[in-house]
UniProtKB/TrEMBL annotation:
<keyword id="KW-1133">Transmembrane helix</keyword>
<keyword id="KW-0812">Transmembrane</keyword>
<feature type="compositionally biased region" description="Basic residues">
    <location>
        <begin position="20"/>
        <end position="31"/>
    </location>
</feature>
<dbReference type="Pfam" id="PF04977">
    <property type="entry name" value="DivIC"/>
</dbReference>
<dbReference type="InterPro" id="IPR007060">
    <property type="entry name" value="FtsL/DivIC"/>
</dbReference>
<feature type="coiled-coil region">
    <location>
        <begin position="80"/>
        <end position="114"/>
    </location>
</feature>
<feature type="region of interest" description="Disordered">
    <location>
        <begin position="1"/>
        <end position="31"/>
    </location>
</feature>
<feature type="transmembrane region" description="Helical">
    <location>
        <begin position="59"/>
        <end position="77"/>
    </location>
</feature>
<keyword id="KW-0472">Membrane</keyword>
<keyword id="KW-0175">Coiled coil</keyword>
<protein>
    <submittedName>
        <fullName>Septum formation initiator</fullName>
    </submittedName>
</protein>
């Protein structure tokens, strides 16, 4: 068969060999881009086919991965948020305590004055200085109000067990 007009070798020099114009040589970058184009589009689909995954199974697998990531992140996120709330509560409490400390320091400064201490003792404890005669004035309407307030109080309701007993024994 080699004698019919074509030589089987690919090199030139034989009878009936056509000259084919050569393509210009590609750069290494062009070769890489072309290879990636050939592999890129079909690679994911080929991998899925090789693993036997349909579109539905791939979607389910992605959903499982997303859920696993969500559960992995959920616990630290919950801890972070609860600790942040605790820190905010502690900061509020510190601010309240600092305000109370300031108020008590002012009160202590007021009570360093002996005249202020004497006025407090007279007003709150009803102390008197030696030689003074204490008088307590009670107005008649205030005593009447105190007595009438005791009379105007509503009667306490009977306990439930007495109400039950009375309902059973009464005819």
């Amino acid at each position: 068969m080699a004698e019919r007009g074509r030589s089987r070798s690919r090199r030139g020099g034989g009878k009936g060999v056509r000259s084919v114009p050569r393509r210009p040589r590609r750069t290494s970058r062009e070769r890489r881009v072309a290879r990636l184009r050939r592999l890129g589009a079909g690679r994911v689909a080929d991998a899925a086919k090789a693993l036997g995954l349909s579109t539905t199974r791939r979607a389910a697998l992605v959903a499982i991965v997303v859920c696993a990531l969500a559960f992995t992140i959920a616990v630290p996120l919950r801890t972070y948020l609860s600790q942040r709330a605790d820190v905010a509560a502690q900061e509020r409490e510190v601010a309240e305590l600092e305000a109370e400390v300031d108020r008590l320091e002012k009160r202590r400064a007021e009570l360093r004055d002996p005249a202020q201490v004497e006025a407090e003792a007279r007003r709150r404890l009803r102390y008197v200085m030696p030689g003074e005669t204490p008088y307590i004035v009670q107005f008649p309407d205030s005593r009447a109000r105190q007595g009438s307030a005791a009379d105007d109080r509503p009667a306490e309701p009977e306990p439930w067990y007495e109400m039950l007993w009375n309902s059973v024994t009464e005819r």
